[in-house]
Design goal:
The protein is mostly helical. Helix content is 78%, strand content 0%. It folds into 2 domains: 49-217 and 229-295, no CATH class; 318-560, no CATH class.
Length: 560
């Protein structure tokens, strides 16, 4: 096997170290049995989402079939998948390319910069296949079944899926390589990386906003007539600002007929061209961007146990001291900061971009406003769900112990009780969730203009729900913290605890929905249902908080 092949194989094995799910591994380590019900809870939550997503795809196909515009479903799925890669793929690229601890091992080896970068690019690409699978695969599969496509379509769908992340991911990788090449010229490297990251993400979000504004401004009766008069009018209208989505759609829909081969050639050609550009950048710029990355950490003086203990305990309450330490751990590592804090702001912004056009209201928004005006309890619970979702699906709580990595020994030797450390970490994690609640509230105010009482009730329910989910995520991470990672990205994005916490959150939301629905069908009034949900979440929050403190006292001495 070639050097590159061996390197890629090792990198993938390190990245997907999920042996804990093997039956033999579970039998050897019975402490991990608790993960099985969490996975089951995740299936309870994810299963209905996929079911309703498939029902929506079928409905849209049925509505579009008389117009002959069904292929626009493929365009939508391709655009959505590439957009998410363009935004969230940045985290993977920066972390894997420039903040992996294994770089200190790989660089001295007889490997070229291209081989090192390609091994990391292969891992990122594999992760992105998983990221877009939820958005893309159901559409591809449902379209093929509903349209009764033959073998050519299924082969084309597989090839399109394999190529789909290449274009946005290579664009992000090229921008990151250029950014890091110049970011390392300054003394404030971390600040430059964060600022550059924000600039790139703002550009990507601005591009998406420009597409939505352009689409909205062009909507009139004559434009609609022109679009519907052509068999690919909707495809061209939706993908006009990003032609690769049109090429992929036509290559998939036409196969070997008509425009299919030519568009397939365009799509493959652009993917290959950008990939060759990345190879060139790898050879010329990759190692130059790495030079000096470790200077800041090298200049920092190693802190002794006595100095650390004095800093933690002198003049401040232990909980406040741990909270400050958590802030420093997150702020000193750009990857932690971007993944944790920026995600809670990005989710509401993406919601606005997807559901709010240039005119300020989309059909989905108007529907939600109508529901809210007719049933305030529905508006309260839906808004609370959205707030809790924005605040908790960022991996901060479910990686709070894992982010310490090999430095966790400090938490065991400092003169602060484990339960006090858990309180400080909880304060930090819930603070991040609070940012998500604030951002989600701002979106709800701007988009839906709710009444003050509805908004206040939604914030109260969302806050207690976010508190419970934050504690739940911390308990999951404390049970099996991931302390051995090669790059900070793995502590969050490739941490099994984060995935388990997402499963638990989705399953819990689904069960809570049925609880509220059961109360409503039982004849209880809307305010009573909201009060019951608030009471249940408050009780769960109190019980889980006490469990976290007791579990911290018991678990800390056991962690090695």
């Amino acid at each position: 096997m070639s050097k590159l092949g061996s390197l890629v194989r090792v990198a993938l094995r390190v990245n997907f170290g999920l042996s804990v799910f093997r039956p033999k591994a579970l039998l050897k380590n019975k402490r991990d049995f608790w993960m099985i019900p969490l996975v089951g809870l995740g299936i309870v939550g994810v299963g209905p989402l996929i079911y309703y997503y498939l029902k929506l795809i079928k409905l849209m196909y049925t509505l579009l079939a008389p117009t002959g515009q069904t292929s626009v479903l493929l365009t939508f799925a391709i655009l959505l998948g590439q957009f998410f890669i363009l935004i969230f793929g940045f985290y993977y690229v920066v972390s894997a390319f420039y903040f992996s601890r294994d770089l200190e091992i790989l660089i001295p080896l007889p490997l070229t910069p291209t081989q090192v970068m390609l091994s990391k690019f292969a891992v990122i690409l594999t992760n992105e296949y998983l990221t877009v699978s939820f958005f893309v695969l159901p559409v591809f599969i449902a379209y093929g079944i509903l349209a009764k496509e033959g073998p050519v379509y299924w082969v084309g769908a597989a090839l399109t899926y394999l190529l789909l992340p290449v274009i946005p991911l290579t664009i992000v990788a090229l921008l990151v390589v250029l950014l890091m090449r110049f970011a390392n010229l300054g003394r404030k490297k971390d600040a430059l990386i964060i600022v550059g990251s924000l600039v790139l993400m703002t550009g990507a979000l601005g591009f998406q906003y420009w597409i939505s504004r352009s689409a909205d401004s062009s909507v009139d009766s004559r434009a609609v007539a022109r679009v519907l008069s052509s068999s690919d009018g909707l495809v061209r209208s939706l993908g006009d600002k990003f032609p690769p989505s049109i090429w992929a759609t036509k290559a998939l829909a036409f196969g070997f007929k008509g425009e299919g081969p030519l568009n397939a050639l365009f799509f493959i050609g652009l993917s290959g061209g950008l990939f060759l550009g990345l190879l060139f950048a790898a050879e010329k710029l990759f190692y130059r961007g790495l030079v000096g990355l470790s200077e800041t950490s090298a200049r920092r003086k190693a802190m002794s146990k006595e100095t650390l203990a004095a800093r933690v305990s002198a003049g401040r309450h232990p909980v406040r001291a741990i909270f400050g330490r958590e802030l420093r751990i997150m702020n000193r590592t750009p990857i932690f900061l971007l993944n944790g804090v920026l995600s809670v702001i990005l989710i509401p912004i993406i919601f606005v971009l997807l559901f709010n056009t240039g005119s300020g209201r989309s059909d989905a928004a108007l529907l939600l406003v109508a529901l809210g005006s007719k049933n305030p309890a529905t508006a309260v619970l839906a808004s609370a769900f959205f707030m809790a979702l924005c605040g908790c699906l960022n991996g901060t709580a479910s990686s709070t112990f894992s982010r310490e990595g090999g430095q966790f020994w400090m938490s065991k030797v400092i003169p602060v009780a484990p339960r006090d450390q858990a309180k400080g970490k909880l304060l930090h994690s819930f603070g991040v969730a609070g940012l998500g609640l604030v951002a989600a509230s701002a979106v709800i105010i701007v988009a839906f203009h709710p009444k003050a009482a509805v908004l206040a009730a939604a914030i109260a329910v969302g806050a207690v729900g976010a508190f419970f989910l934050t504690v739940l995520g911390m308990v999951i991470d404390l049970a099996r913290p991931l302390l051995t990672w090669t790059n900070p990205q793995k502590a969050i994005k490739q941490n099994l605890n984060v995935l388990l916490a997402v499963f638990a959150d989705l399953g819990f939301f689904f069960l809570l929905y049925f609880f509220a629905r059961f109360l409503g069908k039982a004849g209880l009034s809307g305010p009573t249902v909201v009060a019951a949900v608030f009471g249940l979440l408050s009780l769960l929050g109190i019980l889980s908080y006490r469990m976290l403190l007791r579990f911290a006292d018991k678990r800390y001495p056991q962690i090695e």
